[in-house]
């Protein structure tokens, strides 16, 4: 075992993803061009901090990206800002951030801390998937202590199934997502085992600028040091994967398979 493979084993990854030479970065649409990635997050900050660099990476490759936020994350407001006003601040920050990255911002209207896991929410996300037709979906891992994140994971799981169901009549025709990945989030860390590293060096600074539109990234809304944590995490994941800055992702267990080696 060499140093690189040993470092990767410490990081829990079995595959390294780099620009232009990985199964992840080669995700493309039917005409051979880089495809569309949809990041689906419970709250806008989760989307930008943990999935924004993935969107930026695909857009840098001339693909496209969409950030779908199930709520505005309004109940994370500091004591001196009204919840409704903070929600609009979150919306504005997300619009500015996605515009900087070249992505689209889409919002559902569920209340923060009360995102429901039911047929209605799963079908709402199904409709968004059918409308935007992503090749890849990135969302929350299930191992979270946050109720909204847990429900988002379950909603997306059902939404991807519904979106591909030809016999389910909705406003848009059926669409099948090729792959699902789970983002690395400090709140979703239980049993998170990354198996894909994405080199984000080309978009690192732009991603940081996008995150900086959010007050909580700058430490203005609470105790957690989002800026320090996620910027340091990208360096740590870069160390393990051999890149300067990297994002670690976990592929959905249902889409993994062992392929026999042909001699």
How is this structure best described in words?
- By secondary structure, the protein is of the alpha/beta class.
- The chain has a single domain, classed as Rossmann fold (3-Layer(aba) Sandwich), CATH 3.40.50.10320.
- The chain has helices at residues 3-11, 44-60, 83-101, 119-132, 147-164, 204-211, 226-241, and strands spanning 16-17, 36-41, 64-69, 104-107, 136-139, 179-183, 196-199, 246-251.
- It has an eight-stranded mixed beta sheet with strand order 1-7-8-6-5-2-3-4, with helices on both faces.
- Helix 4 crosses helix 5.
- The longest helix has 19 residues, at 83-101.
- It is globular and about 45 Å long.
- The two termini are 23 Å apart.
- Mean pLDDT is 89; it is low at 10-23 and 258-263.
SSE pattern, N- to C-terminal: HEEHEHEHEHEEHHE
How far do the termini sit from each other?
23 Å
- Beta-strand portion reads 5-15%
Helix content: 25-40%
> How would you classify the helix and strand content by structural class?
alpha/beta
* Assembly state (oligomeric): single chain
How would the blueprint of this fold be written?
Layout: H1 3-11, E1 16-17, E2 36-41, H2 44-60, E3 64-69, H3 83-101, E4 104-107, H4 119-132, E5 136-139, H5 147-164, E6 179-183, E7 196-199, H6 204-211, H7 226-241, E8 246-251
Parallel strand pairs: 1-7, 2-3, 2-5, 3-4, 5-6
Antiparallel strand pairs: 6-8, 7-8
Helix pairs in contact: 1-7, 2-3, 2-6, 3-6, 4-5
């Amino acid at each position: 075992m060499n140093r690189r493979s040993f470092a990767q084993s410490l990081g829990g990854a079995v595959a390294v993803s780099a620009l232009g030479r990985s199964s992840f970065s080669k995700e493309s649409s039917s005409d051979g061009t880089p495809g569309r990635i949809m990041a689906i997050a419970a709250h806008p900050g989760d989307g930008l901090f943990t999935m924004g660099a993935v969107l930026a990476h695909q857009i840098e490759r001339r693909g496209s990206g969409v950030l779908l936020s199930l709520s505005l994350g309004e109940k994370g407001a500091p004591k001196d800002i009204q919840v409704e006003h903070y929600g609009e601040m979150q919306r504005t920050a997300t619009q500015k951030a996605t515009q900087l990255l070249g992505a689209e911002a889409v919002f559902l209207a569920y209340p923060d801390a009360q995102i429901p896991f039911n047929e209605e929410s799963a079908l709402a996300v199904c409709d968004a998937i059918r409308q935007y037709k992503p090749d890849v979906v990135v969302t929350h891992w299930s191992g979270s202590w946050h109720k909204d994140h847990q429900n988002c994971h379950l909603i997306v799981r059902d939404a991807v199934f519904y979106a591909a169901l030809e016999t389910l009549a909705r406003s848009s025709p059926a669409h099948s997502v090729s792959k699902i990945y789970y983002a690395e989030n400090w709140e979703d860390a239980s049993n998170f085992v990354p198996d894909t590293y994405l080199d984000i060096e080309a978009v690192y600074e732009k991603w940081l600028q996008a995150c900086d539109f959010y007050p909580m990234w700058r430490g203005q809304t609470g105790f957690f040091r989002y800026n320090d944590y996620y910027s340091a995490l990208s360096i740590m994941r870069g160390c393990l994967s051999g890149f300067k800055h990297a994002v670690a992702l976990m592929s959905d267990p249902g889409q993994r398979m062992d392929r026999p080696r042909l001699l």
